[in-house]
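Per-residue structure
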Amino acid sequence: MAKLRAARPEEAEALTALVARSKAYWGYDAGFLAACAGELRIRGAQVAARRIVVAEDADGAVLGLASLEGRAPRGELGLLFVEPAAMGRGVGRLLYRDALRRAAELGVRRLLIDSDPHAAGFYRAMGAVPSAGDTGNGLVRFEVVPAALPGWARAWTGGGRAVHVGNVGEFNAQFGACSPDRQQRAAHHYACLAAFYSPEPAALVLPAVVPASWVRRVCGAMEWEGVELYDGLAEGPTATTGLSEAVRARPALAGRVTGSGLPLVPWGRTEPFARLAGLPWRARDLRYESKSAAHAMFGRILAGGGHPGIALPAQWRADSRRAAARILARRARAGHTTVLKSRHGVGGSGTTVVTPERVREAGGARAVLRSFPRGPLLVEEYVAGPDGPDEPRDLTYDGLVDGAGRVHEVGGALMEVAGTGYRGATVGPGVVPGWARKPLLAFGEAVGRELAAGGYRGWFDVDFVADAAGRLAPTETNLRLTGPSVAFMVAARLDALRGAGHFVRTVDRVELGARLPEAHLEELCAELAGRCAALGAVFVPAIPTAAFEPEPWLGVLVAARSVARLDAAEALVRAGALGAVAGFAPQSSESNGESGLRVR
């Protein structure tokens, strides 16, 4: 693999010769090359000022070079040339990504690239945006906004790599919200999102076996290298033990996972995970996972004033079915729609909207409640949404509390909710409308401060629904990673790799038109990735294991630099997935077990 270093003044003549060979590779005649020679010449006295970096192989042979010129806030990628014999080996990509990283560190906010026409496809693939500006010399101009990892990402994992532990089922189980089947299929599918628990993983620890082709594709799309995979650790007979306990039961694996010196990032904190990671455990730190406790916290915050754009819906705790039936019946008689909630739930599970018509059709409130799971219920005022169909209804705030108790704002997102079920989220510049942004961020930060004061450390979110009066009603807080958090991680990574301005959408469920073998699933993903790239979008399969269910589906991520392209990419993916050829039987992968280390 090539390594980078600063160029040396005494190399100027040799580097100039490399540039000439690289330019000549595209078939230019001697006259044209002679006319370009002065512009492409590298002088020893200018090497440092032009910030020239070279890529070299293990033997010290120079494979390519790049220069980063100008002064912040405007910079130029003056040179980027690769030795012809090294083309196609990733050298240009390595030099380009390094130039973007250095530009961001220098405070460059607009990086110009005047590309040879033959290299224009490379820069488009790297995420550079074509510019309308005329270079006047036959070159193709591109622009990019260099972006460093945001402050919250540095607070989350120190800005470096982390070990991701997909303990979704384990987290849900501590609240009685695990999948109804003993194998925890739903939780194990969503554990695949562990690939995106931070902007850059060093290792993935997963309960179920995942397709090797999926790991390669995700690593390629996100430009991750050397990612270790430990999968198949808590499925079948071991599914009910939980992922963290399954890792601890394998001492060699536990040593590899915990002894790397890298942060361990779970879906959410649990007592078994605390034992694995050697962290203190206090169950009360997760008390606001309870929807009733969160509602009480919201009320305390609002009682202090300062949040005029927030309206808290009324909520009543019903410790018996009879009490819940009385409240529901009273509200139905008054013509009010009601929300019934379990105290804990994931992705909208345990939450149902009950209209007066439903109560009448069922024959009364008690009849409605017979379909609900046992346990205490919360009865909550229903918040009517905006009148316009295109007005945002479901929003969320993501933040984190670091080890010192400081709150870091991650941002706001729009959620896709069908009924009461979460279906995905969109993050990106300006996705939260202007009227909602200030109250959402202010209230989310206030919740973070309350959580920090109560001892909580880690990721959290606050979900809201918008009402008809243009206010936000907080509905719950989640003390764990979520679907929107995954979108934020991917956006941070793509912005750092390709330049700022990415919109990212998670789509939890894309129905497949067939139950495909792994090889055919990879063919489908390759086709969707290529077609999305032609739209200027990035496609990443996020949840692959559900593709082998009797009713197959995929969870996906799409990213683009505009919402219009994002919408087009999602539509393309849905249509392409439904059009998958039917008639294939699923292929199963063999479990890695403890010794099943795979590096991508």
Q: What stands out?
A: The CA atoms of residues 209 and 589 lie 7 Å apart. The first helix runs from residue 12 to 24.
